[in-house]
Amino acid sequence: MSVQTDIDAAMTSLGSTISAYTAANGSAVLLAQWLVNQIKQADLGVARALDQGVTRFVAEQPDKRPFANIG
Predict the structure, then answer these.
(1) What is the value of pTM for the model shown?
(2) Cα dihedral across residues 64, 14, 70, 54: positive or negative
(3) Of 28, 30, 34, 60, whose CA is between 20 and 30 Å from 16?
(4) Residue 53: which region, alpha, beta or left (left: phi > 0; alpha: psi -120 to 50)?
(5) Which residues of the chain have pLDDT under 50?
(6) In this structure, is the dihedral angle defined by the CA atoms of residues 64, 68, 5 and 35, taken in order, positive or negative?
(7) Is residue 50 classed exposed, middle or buried when 0-12, 13-18 and 19+ CB atoms within 10 A define those classes?
(8) Highest taxon of the source (predicted)?
Protein backbone atom coordinates (compact mmCIF):
# COMPACT_ATOMS: atom_id res chain seq x y z
CA MET A 1 0.00 0.00 0.00
CA SER A 2 1.10 3.55 -0.64
CA VAL A 3 0.74 6.55 1.60
CA GLN A 4 -2.02 7.85 -0.70
CA THR A 5 -4.10 4.68 -0.42
CA ASP A 6 -3.53 4.64 3.35
CA ILE A 7 -4.91 8.20 3.47
CA ASP A 8 -7.93 7.19 1.40
CA ALA A 9 -8.61 4.24 3.73
CA ALA A 10 -8.31 6.47 6.79
CA MET A 11 -10.70 9.02 5.26
CA THR A 12 -13.26 6.29 4.59
CA SER A 13 -13.07 5.30 8.24
CA LEU A 14 -13.22 8.95 9.34
CA GLY A 15 -16.27 9.53 7.13
CA SER A 16 -18.06 6.59 8.75
CA THR A 17 -17.14 7.88 12.20
CA ILE A 18 -18.44 11.38 11.44
CA SER A 19 -21.69 9.96 10.06
CA ALA A 20 -22.21 7.82 13.16
CA TYR A 21 -21.46 10.73 15.50
CA THR A 22 -23.79 13.19 13.79
CA ALA A 23 -26.52 10.52 13.39
CA ALA A 24 -26.43 10.17 17.18
CA ASN A 25 -27.16 13.93 17.45
CA GLY A 26 -23.55 14.87 18.04
CA SER A 27 -22.67 18.49 17.35
CA ALA A 28 -21.15 18.77 13.89
CA VAL A 29 -19.60 22.16 14.77
CA LEU A 30 -17.97 20.81 17.92
CA LEU A 31 -16.66 17.78 16.03
CA ALA A 32 -15.27 19.97 13.23
CA GLN A 33 -13.51 22.25 15.71
CA TRP A 34 -12.00 19.26 17.50
CA LEU A 35 -10.87 17.64 14.23
CA VAL A 36 -9.16 20.82 13.01
CA ASN A 37 -7.45 21.21 16.37
CA GLN A 38 -6.19 17.60 16.24
CA ILE A 39 -4.94 18.07 12.67
CA LYS A 40 -3.11 21.27 13.61
CA GLN A 41 -1.40 19.51 16.51
CA ALA A 42 -0.30 16.64 14.27
CA ASP A 43 1.81 18.65 11.84
CA LEU A 44 3.08 22.24 11.78
CA GLY A 45 3.02 22.44 7.98
CA VAL A 46 -0.60 21.38 7.89
CA ALA A 47 -1.39 23.82 10.71
CA ARG A 48 0.11 26.68 8.69
CA ALA A 49 -1.88 25.63 5.61
CA LEU A 50 -5.10 25.60 7.62
CA ASP A 51 -4.31 29.03 9.08
CA GLN A 52 -3.63 30.41 5.58
CA GLY A 53 -7.12 29.67 4.31
CA VAL A 54 -6.82 26.23 2.79
CA THR A 55 -10.22 25.55 4.38
CA ARG A 56 -11.93 28.02 2.04
CA PHE A 57 -13.18 25.00 0.07
CA VAL A 58 -15.64 24.33 2.91
CA ALA A 59 -18.06 26.78 1.25
CA GLU A 60 -17.60 25.04 -2.09
CA GLN A 61 -18.68 21.65 -3.40
CA PRO A 62 -16.64 18.96 -1.61
CA ASP A 63 -13.91 17.30 -3.61
CA LYS A 64 -14.87 13.63 -3.81
CA ARG A 65 -11.69 12.47 -5.58
CA PRO A 66 -9.57 9.91 -3.74
CA PHE A 67 -6.34 11.37 -2.39
CA ALA A 68 -4.43 8.85 -4.50
CA ASN A 69 -5.70 10.72 -7.59
CA ILE A 70 -4.57 14.16 -6.41
CA GLY A 71 -1.75 13.58 -3.90
Answers:
(1) 0.69
(2) positive
(3) 60
(4) left
(5) none
(6) negative
(7) middle
(8) Bacteria
